[in-house]
């Protein structure tokens, strides 16, 4: 679900490193919103990341 329809930005993984340098798994999720978007003259609800919304890649309905 947390995947942008436009740029396909999704969650990515890495390590959380403590002060003593012990490592555990960490996940960063994309800032994805469910918005109504104008598509082919109609409206459609899509999951779009906020960077695509701000840059104007989609037009809100």
Automatic annotation (TrEMBL):
The keyword Transmembrane helix does not apply. InterPro entries: Bacterial_rp_bL28, Ribosomal_bL28, Ribosomal_bL28/bL31-like_sf, Ribosomal_bL28_bact-type, Ribosomal_bL28_sf. One of its GO terms (molecular function) is structural constituent of ribosome. One of its GO terms (biological process) is translation. It holds the Pfam family Ribosomal_L28. GO terms for cellular component: ribonucleoprotein complex; ribosome. Keywords: Ribonucleoprotein, Ribosomal protein. The keyword Ribosomal protein applies. Belongs to the bacterial ribosomal protein bL28 family. This is Large ribosomal subunit protein bL28. The lineage of its organism: Bacteria, Bacillati, Bacillota, Clostridia, Lachnospirales.
């Amino acid at each position: 679900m947390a995947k942008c329809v436009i740029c396909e930005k999704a969650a990515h993984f890495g390590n959380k490193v403590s002060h003593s340098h012990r490592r555990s798994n960490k996940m960063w999720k994309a800032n994805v919103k469910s918005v109504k978007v104008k598509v082919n003259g109609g409206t459609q609800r899509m999951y779009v990341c906020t960077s695509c919304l701000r840059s104007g890649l989609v037009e809100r309905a």
